Amino acid sequence: MISWRQGAVGLAEPGLARPRARLSLCLVGLLATALPRLVGAQGSLANSGVELTAVDLSPRAADPGSALTLLFRLRNRSQTRATVESRLELPGRWRQLIGPARIVLEPGQTAPQLLTIVVPGRALVGKYTVRYAAWAAADSGSKVTAAVTVVVREQPRLGLELIDVAHFVVAGERFVVTGLLRNLGNAPVTARLEAKGSPGLKLRKDSSTVHLGAGETHQLSFPIETRGGASGESIQYLWITATRIGEAGADSSVTARATPEIEIVGRARVGESRRHSVPLSLAVRRIGESAGGSSLGRDDTAELSGGGDLTEGGATRVDLFARRSRTTRSGLAVRDEFRFGLTSPAADLRIGDYSFDFSPLTETRRVATGAAVRAHRGLWSAGAFVIRDAGRGRAPLKEEAAFVGYRVKPGLQFSANALTRHGAGAGMVGSLGTVFNAAALGSFDLEAGLSSSPTSGSGFAWALRAHGAPGGFGYDIRRIQGDRSYVGRFQGARQDNLGLTTPTRYRLRLSGQISSQFVGEDVLLSHPDSLPGTTLSSQRSQSTTIGLAWQDLLQVERRTLKQEAFFAGQRLGGEETAFQARASARIGSAIRLSQEVARGKLRSAVTDPEQPFWRFAFRSQLSIGNRQSYGISVQRQSTAQSESTPAVEQTSFDLTGNLQLPTGTDLRLLGSVNRGPGYSLGGTVSPASFATAIYDAAVTQHLPLGHFATARVRSMLPRFRPSGRQTILQLEYRVPIGVPGGGSSTAGEVGVRVRDAETGRGVPNALVRLDGRPALTDGDGRVKFAGLVSREYYLSIDRPSLGVGRISDHDQPTPVQVAGNRTIQVAIAVTRAARITGKVQRWDYLERQRLQDTAGTAIVETGGLADMDIDLDNGVEVRRQVTDSDGAFAFTNLLPGRWTVRIVGGALPAFHDLVSDSTVVDLPAGGTEEVLFRVLPRARKIHIAQTPALTPIKAPPSRPHQPR
Hints:
By secondary structure, the chain is mainly beta. The protein is built from one helix and 64 strands.
């Protein structure tokens, strides 16, 4: 009989004190019925001296679907050989990879038992007992067991599957999305369901809680409404998320998601007009501003803006912007403004507040009120503008300008420009310019101008601009200079710029730029842009930048900036030299990080000592799809004033967020804190510091019919007025409107009728696309696309919208040519789909072992031929397939009619031929036809070749072997 032992402790050997042994046996007998599983192994004891030991009795942890190895030990402590049989007793559906077998143990021999079991993949969480039983082969009643506890860990997992999602939905209609939520884990779970949709979708139920046992399934249902008024294609998304709720709340590590794409389409009706509207937007805005509890004023603004093609698909575009503002001492008031632009291939017209210019030496680069026209025909071009600028406290300025250009050949053009100025700095300017474009070298622009003024006489200026990238080396050269008598923007001024960029090699790019600007003394006093009472006499600036970049990840540059000006006889300005490095990285498609470090020194023209500074900036951007984005920006700067005073430090922190909520609400948030030094009235730095905090929040609600409502709150705590909090409230309502545009003599239409080929009736609610623009047919199967320019379009029909097992003769995109102001009618036939199945069958002679086939003429089927190329052709469409391993093929979703099935490729067996390589099939609507191609062996005759007479060959005489 076999005895047992727990852990490393075994039973006492025979020979110990008998009274103690008898007492032990009595106790074991009493406890055997009450506590049968108190220990790891139990059984009858014998004097065989063989014992069973579980090496490790501590509970073993395992995951569902994992393998677990257990170690036991058998030992023969007797003086005779013992044969032991054993087995594993496992819970239901558990299995063993390596199990026990019959073991023969010599006296004193120890045999380890390494047993491997597999936990079922769907084992529930809990404790399970694995028993190892062993018994003597000659005495099965001596069975003993050793038990090990296996603890199956919790493995939570959720699965989400959508079973019914609309392929497309008509705008304004309702639909239901259904799905299945499965508990794929081994323990009960509580899940929170959340559903969010794009602005075009409105959910009637967006969240719920579900309790699921292990392996259970719950059916989901989400009623959804679409917003009406959709026209054209609109792709909307639905985000459904199931998240496990644990003791500590939502567990994002156990989540199941589904994101179906839903297409919202409108109806293009038969009577749609050829005329169209130019899209505009009317906004009404009110801004209220207050500080310290008292009102600072308000601003009421009305804006009309927008633009588009004047005619549907035409080349003429119109742009409009008009703003009218009424303010009562508001610091955010905007000025009245009006702009109207008309652009066509032959001419451009601009009226209102624009920046007008024709050439570098006659440009003003200021926003003024006026009108400009530019036109070209053939090789000639011309233009003119008239402007009036009231200025800011200066006398009104009026200018008239004109130009005439002539293109000698492609890439070479000359122009003559003229400008007359009235008011401050009155005079006339004339210039000649040329533009030369060389594809290999770049573009060159040279202009020289003369001016005449009643006060300063005649003046001269010239300008040169060149840029290009020959051989990958980029350059940008600019030089503009005018003397003090020149009438224009560059009066007594000089601008220089030189930029070079090396080609990208080894992912490195080297660039450099040098620029300078100078305005001479006493020139600014008479310049028309000068304010009354200005005592600024001259100014000069110069900057140099040299940089090295590695892709877009790392940029290093050195920058030097010098600025100098004279104001009321005093020298102002300073010099800055800095070395900065910028690094950026993108993590996946959602996170972008950037960091900038700069170190340099400042030198003021007033205080000669240098002021070292350093700056650190960190920015991050997180985007979640197209619905949410967040940004964080941190910047810190320290500037040392002198050796005796501490450094001045400044820190800023910005936080931004943009969220699109499923209810059609857009939320924008901005928070900014800037902490820096304070200043006394004398301009010196104060030890105290103040923080400027800005909080900005805006909510935009998308309303029906394309309306928008926006509410914005902005609160600012100025640095120098800690008690003067300033709050701004802005309310805006925007309405889309359309101004009727003109029809186009070149705009055409495409009318489509979808009909049932068997009944002749129209097919309603069929989804037709013209170059991706979707529309649904009406009750008679008709739809019309209007306002089309003259070109080729592709027409297709969505097969799932026709119904199960139905097909159209426009299953593939079909080209439709629109030319002129005509309506193209297209008929689409819908019918039941047909199919053709077939097989390429091989035949061979019957085996010659059969005595009755003495002639060898009987043939039998031996299987199909694989990898044979099959073509299907109806004169319009060609399809191809390759036979499978059984020689079978199948063509589905076929139009009824005559089709030709042909074998066009593949390897035939040796000495075999096709009976026929093609066949013609007439397919009825919804029918199925079967085709069989037979490959037969060739009939071969046996020819006995004539052989020459055999001539015996004499063997050479044998020689006796001579021993060496």
